[in-house]
Design a protein that fits this description.
It is a single chain. With 206 residues, the chain is of the alpha+beta class. 22% of the residues lie in helices and 21% in strands. The strands form 3 sheets. It has a 3-stranded antiparallel sheet, with helices on one face. Strand 1 and strand 2 form a beta hairpin. Helix 2 (162-178) packs antiparallel against helix 3 (185-201).
């Protein structure tokens, strides 16, 4: 039976047997006395043949293709960014070049986990770094709290790189003042003005 249905479907696919406007197609399977089998479309088998008749409903026409509408591009939000160099937004200093002094010492500090930062202090205060705790069986235990006191190692920035380091420090303070929490705005603003004054009035502000 399965092979018979496959033969019917194949016959429907032939252009000579297809009927575009008909709602159904009649297929005749004719078996002659010699055993030869033929398929005929809408024509009965000749006399002397064993006939099997099958009515096949034509599938409904495919709907016309309609392209989907293109999505409307939304404008990108405008984000205000901090100036790349805060010193460039300042008014020029009135101090003569001959009266300028080198900036204060600045230190490059390295943390225990290989991070680094700039500091005006050569010996920063020790910090308590949290340690992972385990229970008696050696499994991780989040309920326990323990820490280890560590001190960052700092080295003074060489004189020839002092101005570059101070301008980097100024950019860091500018970024902190721009994106600070609301309760830190006042303190960060004062720190920005202090660092900005150092850069502007030292030999770095030439």
């Amino acid at each position: 039976m399965r092979g018979w249905l496959l033969v019917l479907l194949s016959a429907l696919a032939l252009p000579s047997l297809a009927r575009t406007h008909a709602s159904s197609v009649v297929i005749y399977r004719c078996t002659a006395a010699s055993g030869d089998v033929t398929l005929q479309n809408d024509a009965a088998c000749p006399k002397g043949s064993r006939q099997q008749r099958q009515v096949i409903e034509s599938p409904p026409p495919m709907p016309a293709y309609r392209p989907a509408p293109m999505p409307v591009a939304m404008p990108e939000p405008v984000v205000e960014r901090a100036p790349a160099d805060a010193a460039a937004t300042d008014a020029p200093s009135t101090i003569a070049d001959k009266d300028r002094l080198p900036p204060p010492a600045l230190y490059q500090c390295n943390t225990y986990d290989n991070d680094s930062y700039l500091s005006e202090t050569a010996t920063p205060e020790p910090r308590c770094v949290r340690l992972n705790t385990v229970d008696l069986q050696g499994s991780a235990n989040d309920a326990g709290v323990a820490c280890q006191m560590v001190t960052d190692q700092c080295q003074r920035v060489a004189d020839e790189g002092a101005c570059k380091a101070w301008k980097q420090r100024l950019r860091e303070v500018q970024s902190a003042a721009t994106f600070a929490r609301s309760d830190d705005v006042a303190a960060n603003k004062l720190e920005l003005e202090r660092v900005r004054k150092i850069v502007r009035e030292s030999t770095c502000g030439k």
